[in-house]
TrEMBL record, chain B:
Residues 78-145 form the YetF C-terminal domain. This is DUF421 domain-containing protein. It is found in: Cell membrane. It comes from Parapedobacter defluvii. The lineage of its organism: Bacteria, Pseudomonadati, Bacteroidota, Sphingobacteriia, Sphingobacteriales. Belongs to the UPF0702 family.
Length: 165, 146
């Protein structure tokens, strides 16, 4: 296809055309359109939450964890645990981590809580089921990077998030 | 303070976005574009107000947005370069009846758009009756007949 150049002309109109600036502007617009496309693609992949880039799964000694790496301010998220073969489950969350969130709900209900040594611990009686799912519904209250090491029956799990404004 | 930052961030983001989309996209507003603008307004409102639906919050926010807009008007009046950067400059699309195809392609204007503007503003029938067609800063096409 033949490429058409931008014509330079002499005219009698009293107007400031500034063609060189127009050319720069069109270039910026083209880059901007590509950036919009990239942002849409990254959003679909989960850069702003819920997607391939955001979903994080960790499995360790019969305990599995699933959470979102990218969160949004005041948008509730779910930290899902599945713990196998334990009659009593103790989950300890660092206070410094919880400072960034509001705990909306914990499922299953009927747990015991205590605060000690910079951690809030949640203790669940699970009976003799093979797998116990535990959900923490947390609402981000501050923006930026958040890191916290949760303890599940003394096993350490590192959770990392970025909370968008 | 958070409200001011939120208002300023959204104002600048929308300014940048609409500048990148180009002026023709705003001038060619169709019924669907109007619906789209309403949706954008709704999404923006949620982000601006958050969970605070008080009258005070709304009044402060309106004042902040109007203040930023006023500041930009003042700055654009003072600095011509900033004005040209934000508003763009007029662009000649037809020179003595000859459509300038390279410019039209870049500005996303076709011959039909120019002829339509010529018919509406001056009742012109043919391209050769146009001396100059200019894409103005607001996205409208002005016609100077031969």
């Amino acid at each position: 296809m033949k490429r058409i150049g931008v014509e330079r002309i002499e005219h009698s109109l009293e107007l400031e055309e500034k063609l060189d600036q127009q050319l720069k502007g069109w270039m910026v617009q083209k880059i901007g359109r590509v950036l919009i496309g990239i942002i849409i693609l990254l959003t679909a992949l989960g850069l702003f939450g819920s997607g391939l880039l955001s979903n994080k799964k960790i499995k360790k000694n019969g305990t599995s964890l699933q959470y979102e790496r990218f969160l949004r301010y005041e948008k509730e998220m779910d930290v899902q645990w599945t713990i196998a073969g334990q009659e009593e489950i103790q989950i300890r969350i660092p206070l410094q981590y919880l400072d960034r969130f509001k705990v909306e709900k914990v499922v299953p209900e009927g747990y015991e809580t205590a605060t000690a040594n910079g951690y809030v611990s949640y203790t669940f009686k699970s009976g003799k089921t093979t797998e116990t799912p535990v959900h923490f519904y947390l609402n981000p209250q501050k923006t930026g990077n958040v890191t916290g090491e949760w303890l599940v029956n003394k096993q350490r799990f590192q959770l990392r998030h970025f909370i968008y404004p | 303070m958070e409200l001011i930052l939120r208002g300023a961030a959204l104002y600048l983001f929308l300014l940048l976005l609409f500048r990148v989309l180009g002026k023709r996209s705003l001038a060619e507003t169709t019924t669907f574009d109007f619906v789209l603008l309403l949706i954008i307004g709704e999404a923006t409102q949620q982000a601006l107000l958050g969970n605070d639906f008080s009258t005070t919050n709304a009044l402060v926010l309106i004042t902040v947005l109007m203040g930023i807009d006023l500041a930009f008007v003042k700055l654009k009046g003072k600095y011509k370069k900033l004005d040209r950067l934000l508003e763009g400059t007029p662009l000649i699309l037809v020179d003595h009846g000859k459509p300038l195809k390279g410019r039209m392609k870049e500005a996303k204007v076709d011959t039909e758009d120019i002829l339509e503007a010529a018919r509406i503003s001056h009742g012109l029938e043919q391209m050769h009756q146009i001396k100059y067609a200019v894409l103005e800063r607001d996205g409208q096409i002005s016609i100077i007949p031969s």
